[in-house]
Specification:
The chain is mainly β. The protein is about 15% helix and about 40% strand. It has one domain: Sandwich (Immunoglobulin-like), CATH 2.60.40. Strand 7 and strand 8 form a beta hairpin.
Length: about 150
């Protein structure tokens, strides 16, 4: 499942996502998944933006965090629990799993070389220091497992 959190729409981003949607519709569907749409918070401080996303049961190795200009993208996969892997009939299921992608449009430019991301207690926190100038490159931000 894919979701976007926005502080303002830009026409070029809308066009890019329409293109992606058309590509997704052309791909044959795989096995059914319950859908996983994690909640996202975006905070603005004096010198940085902080994005927090609830990812219970997701390992840091399953996450890819990228930044292009003001667009932060967090993608990954939540695997089904061991109890779901066992054979048997499930009567009720609310905990989602599967691939997810969340995009957050930041209110202003950031310094990608100083950005950090950490996963602790099932919450991913991405810290993005604010910048005065815009950058036009794609950056991948490493996610560390802070529970170890």
């Amino acid at each position: 499942m894919r979701r976007r959190v926005s502080s303002g729409w830009e026409l070029e981003l809308i066009q890019r996502h329409l293109d992606e949607l058309l590509n997704l519709l052309a791909v044959p569907r795989g096995p059914a998944e319950t859908g996983f749409a994690p909640p996202v918070d975006l905070q603005e401080g004096k010198d940085r933006y902080v994005v927090r996303i609830d990812l219970p049961g997701v390992a840091a190795s399953e996450l890819v965090v990228t930044l292009r200009q003001r667009e932060l993208r967090i993608a990954g996969r939540k695997l089904p629990g061991n109890e779901q892997a066992a054979k048997g009939h499930c009567h009720h299921m609310e905990r989602g799993f599967g691939a997810f992608s969340v995009e957050v449009l930041l209110p202003g430019p950031v310094r990608p070389d100083a950005a950090t991301a950490g996963l602790a207690a099932g919450v991913l926190e991405v810290r993005l220091p604010r910048a005065r100038e815009r950058r036009d490159s794609l950056y991948t931000i490493a996610v560390t497992d802070e529970e170890s």
